[in-house]
Every structure is written in C-alpha cells, then in structure tokens.
C-alpha cells in the first residue's frame, strides 16, 4: 500500500461535464486538473466509446482551456469552447468526427460563454457579452474608466450563429436582461430562455423570467417570473400540451430546498411537483418524453422520472450522481459517480439499473491505503433523524479507539456529505485519517437530502439547532469509545468555516480549530458579499434594519470572540468575493485583541476556493500540522 501525500491529492485529474452523443455510441468529457500551475487552467476534451471497444483518447492536442462539449443532433459533430487562439477568451469550435477536421467557428472579441446546437443543423445559439465599440488604445490609467454601478454592466446576451455564413445576429427581444440558460423543445420547436434582471448575484436571481424564442422568426413570448435561483430547464409533452420545468428555491425564502416547478405552457399554470418530497432534487434532465430527476436522498442518490402523477423511482445509487446526460429517448444515461474509496468517474447504463464505469482518471490512487468509511444514523436532541459519515484512521477499527476526532462541517449550508470518497484539496476526511485521526462528517439540518423543511429550518437561525445536531454526533462517538473527548478538533470551509468559528465561541471542548473562508459577521457579509440577500436570509437581518441590536449579531461568531480560548488556524483567499477577506481580518483582529493563540494565512490571487497547486498543498500540510500540534498526546 502507498502512503497518501499532499502532491498525490492535488496532482490528480478529474472528469467533468460528460456529454452523451444522441446515438448513445460516444461520449465526450472534460478532463480537468485538481490544481492550477500557471495563469490558466489547462483542460482537455476526451472521447470514449460507450461500449468499451475503444479506450478514452484525447479529442484535440491543444494546450488550452476546453469546456462545454455538446453534440450536433446527428452525433457527427462535437461543438465545444476553447481558448486555444487567445488564452482567457473562449471561442466556439467544431470537431467533425468522421474526418477529424477541427474548425474555429467564432471570433467574438469578448469570447463565448455558452452554446447550444439547435435542431436546425445550420444554427447554434450562443451566450456572449457585447463586443466593445470604438477603438480605445489608451492605457487604463489614462482613460475615463469610472465604473458607474448599474450602467454598462456586462450582460450575457443570446446570439444566433448561422454556420453556413458565420454570421452572428443578436435578437433584440430581452431588453437589458442577463441570459443564463437555454433549452430547445425536443421536437425542434422554440427555445426556452431563462433570464435574470442582471448578472449581479445579489440582485439577479430574484428577478428570473422565462421566455419562448422562435429561432427562425426571432420573435419572443414572455412566460412570466420563475423562482429564486432558477436553473435546469427541461421540456416534456403532456396531454394538455407542452410543459416546461425548472429547479428553483422553494418560496417564500431565499434559503430553502430546491423543488421541481412545472409550467403548463398553454394554460400558464405553474405547480411545485416535489412539495413534501423527503428528498431534494438537484438536476432535471430533458428527454423526448418525461424528464429525469436526480434527487439527493440522505447519504445517497435516487434517480426518478417525472410522470404526470409524480416522481417514479427508477434506481437508487450510493453516494452522488452528478452531471447527468442522456440520449433523447432516455434509454441510456451517463453520470459522474464513484464509491467510498474511488473518486468520481464517468459511468453509463440504463436509468433503471446498474451503471458501468468507462473511465479511470485517477489510477495513481489504486494502491493508496484509505480509512474505513461508514454511514452514521442518529437522532437530534429534538428527535429529528440525522445522518453523517465516520472515517476511521487508516488501518484501524472502531474497537481500537478512542482516537483523536476531527469534525469537518460541510459548506452551503445547503450542501451535504454523501457516501462517496472523501478526498479533496481542502481539509478532508481521508487526508486526516491518513495521519491517524478519526473524522466525523455530520449532516446537520439546513442541508440537502431530507426535503424542504429540513433545509429551510436554519434561515435566520444559523448556529442554533444545526450546532446542537453536530454536538449530538460528537457525543455519540465519545459514548461509543471511538472519539477521545480530550482530543477534539473542528474544521470547515465557507459555511463550515462559520460553524468552526461559532463552535469555539460556544465551548472549550475543542483543542484546535480551522476556519477556512468562514463567515464571522452576517451583517457585514450581507453588506459586502456577492450573495448579500441570500446571506441576509441566513443571518436574519442586515445592518440597515434599524439601530439594533440586530438578530444577525446573535448568530455571528464575532459576537462571541471574547469567549474563545481554542487555538484557531484562519485560511482565506485574498480575492474571495463570496466571503470577502474582511471576515477573516475581523476574526484575526478579535483573536489578537483577546490574546488567543492563532495563525492567519492569506492566499494571494485566490477566491473562495483555492486553485493554485502550491496553495492547495499548503492548505493540506498546514491543516494537518495544526491539528498535530494541538491534538497529539
């Protein structure tokens, strides 16, 4: 068996965005490195025959960022985006599979954001921002480049590309709205177009609208508003005409479980088709008939079909299913999935049965010893059913405890731990299990997998019952002799970082904590984060909600900084716009003021996720060294 190293974790490559050809014979996927070593993330397109007759092979030989593979209706041409000509500016390319001819289709100066080959083989719909007008060769410092918020903000607009002439037209039908998603009706009819009020994450998702566009006449029909954070459009035929579905957050909240919404196009009747569902839909996938629905179901995943009477379960799978793609008839699907001890790969098969792996993108992990992973089921203090995962130290059994225990809280909070391989660049269970730690991965309320009520229960009450849910899991492992109560640590990233900062302000039980990109003041986050209204819903108020005291102060870790005695490692990206760096600075200054042992690390050029290779390695090594310093006997 091989030992796990930080380099082994971050130097891998992972498959993304599988695209199944309409005839079901071939599949294209993006192969992306876990970390970036230069200015650009160099990705590759790979092709594989679904029958296994031909192994995976690269579709192109360029050094570029290649993405968004999509097939023509006749399965002969693969369209994709690549910045092979000008790095950082993706253009549409077409690969003819019969002769291997590769054509650069567009030269749009701002680049192409997304594309959709249409039923008419001469047309491709594009999403792209406006090209600059007028020459301006002056340096930035020498020109009038004042930014007026709300004016000339970038918008993705719908364009139509005629492949015969190369001409791109822009239907002037959506005003100044930002276009986010397209889906053509299966019979080659109109395009469903999802727009937002703007590209601003704080404002746009609340102003979603649906439209129908005839790509031939370029006429549009407005279908009305959609729910917050709408996505995943899908058409299907019904006895009363065509239906158009999407996923969105369940009203009235901004932080709640997603649901499948069904719009009968002719009658304009909109229904929530998954109300009361004890699972959470994560993807809606169009076929020629009833669409397929992927549902987070506790620690696992259910694949269902949206029938007129409701969801019909087709199959159930351990862990996660992501990036579902299917043939038009829905007889063959492809997804990204893995196992407890294997990272995700592309799998294919029928929607009603077992799936077969057709890629192996991390063979270097085949001989690596991993800790035993097992699901947990327990009840919260108020009787609510909870689940999570326990990962034991490598080579050890539960009977050999107690072990030092590190609890890693997931982000979101609308996320979950699924029963899949827990090995990532951020503090992850298998990385710590390799160093002799037992790791608890709890799924407290507020997350995915248990329906709307479970997910919505933390809005305005973060850090309350979700915190006691986590404590209940820790206490369970202590009582079972698995966790050493004198050697407890806690860690998390994003909302998990918030929970880590919250924990050490509530109790002295933890000997060490890691706060990665964590929230420490909900009012400040609502004011400065890119998702302000969403954060205000979680925190319960904003700074402009009167003179205070504000509800968000009672659930902000910074309010309890004077109680902290636990050593804290703070990790944050310098360019984080989701949870801005000021959150970490605030915690650092408070801990310095109260003379609390801590270390504050800022990663230059990084956003909410850490991407550069050396920085990812530093996160892994520094996190483990921090826990070794404080939790080792």
Summary, kept brief:
By secondary structure, the chain is α+β, with helices and mostly antiparallel strands.
Shape: globular
Radius of gyration: 25 Å
CATH class of one domain: Alpha Beta
Mean pLDDT: 94
The poorly predicted ranges are: none
Let me know the CATH homologous superfamily of one domain. Answer: Alpha/Beta hydrolase fold, catalytic domain
Total of DSSP H or I helical runs spanning 4+ residues:
10
Summarize the biggest pleated sheet. Answer: 8 strands, mixed
Total E-strand runs: 36
CATH topology of one domain: Rossmann fold
Q: Determine the N-to-C terminus distance.
A: 27 Å
CATH architecture of one domain: 3-Layer(aba) Sandwich
Structural class: alpha+beta
Q: How are the strands of the biggest sheet laid out side by side? A: 29-30-32-31-33-34-35-36
Helix amount: 10-25%
Sheet-strand content, in percent, reads: 25-35%
Can you walk me through this structure?
- The protein has 633 residues and is of the alpha+beta class.
- The protein has a domain at 369-631: Rossmann fold (3-Layer(aba) Sandwich).
- Helices cover 15% and strands 34% of the residues.
- The chain is built from ten helices and 36 strands.
- Helix 6 packs antiparallel against helix 7.
